């Protein structure tokens, strides 16, 4: 009713009243609109009852079929929009959640790629360390041989020194 650009909208617990509404297709005479909503929790529906006070008489299909048809379409459009609104809100929430999920997926894919790269680097480091260890074992073996040779040389020199008297 606010979209009808009325001078006053009063919403009570059981009834909504809109004062001095101008509907362009109906001329320049302002009308009053009364609306009442009854919720049926059993089937999760709402019954809408609307009365159009034309200024002394209420709108009826027998008095003015054209205005009645326009009013009927207005109420139908209202019902469609109020039915769409919560679904549109749910759709927006679902799309936001989907966007977050896709962002999370992207982060996970990036993490996996980084971890796989780390694994390859670790494998390369392990291979290099194994090669270095093998080389060091060969170096150690050579060093042991050199030490044994040096001990033998020292023993020879010690025995030569002991022979001198």
Number of helices: 1
Shape: rod-shaped
Rounded Rg: 47 Å
Count of folded domains: 2
Poorly predicted segments: none
On the 0 to 100 scale, the average pLDDT is: 90
Explained architecture:
The protein is of the alpha+beta class. It has 2 domains: 2-59, no CATH class; 83-158. The protein is built from 1 helix and 4 strands; from the N terminus they run ββββα. It has one helix at residues 65-163, and strands at 8-11, 15-21, 31-40, 45-53. It has a 4-stranded antiparallel β-sheet, covered by helices on one side. The mean pLDDT is 90.
Keywords summarizing the entry:
four-stranded antiparallel sheet, 4 strands, rod-shaped, 165 residues, 2 domains, single chain
Topology overview:
Blueprint: E1 8-11, E2 15-21, E3 31-40, E4 45-53, H1 65-163
What can be said about this structure in brief?
The protein is α+β, with helices and mostly antiparallel strands. The chain has one helix and four strands; from the N terminus they run E-E-E-E-H.
């Amino acid at each position: 009713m606010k979209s009808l650009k009325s001078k006053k909208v009063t919403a009570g617990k059981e009834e909504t009243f809109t004062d001095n509404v101008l509907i362009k297709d109906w001329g320049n005479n302002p009308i009053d609109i009364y609306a009442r909503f009854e919720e049926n929790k059993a089937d999760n529906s709402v019954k809408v009852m609307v009365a159009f006070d034309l200024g002394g008489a209420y709108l009826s299909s027998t008095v003015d079929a054209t205005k009645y048809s326009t009013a009927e379409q207005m109420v139908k459009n209202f019902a469609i929009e109020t039915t769409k609104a919560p679904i549109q809100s749910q759709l927006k929430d679902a799309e936001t959640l989907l966007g977050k999920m896709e962002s999370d997926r992207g982060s996970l894919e990036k993490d996996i790629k980084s971890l796989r790269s780390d694994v390859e680097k670790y494998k390369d480091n392990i291979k290099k360390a194994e090669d270095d260890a093998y080389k060091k074992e060969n170096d150690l073996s050579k060093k042991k041989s050199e030490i044994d040779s040096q001990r033998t040389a020292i023993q020879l020199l010690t025995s030569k020194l002991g022979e001198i008297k």
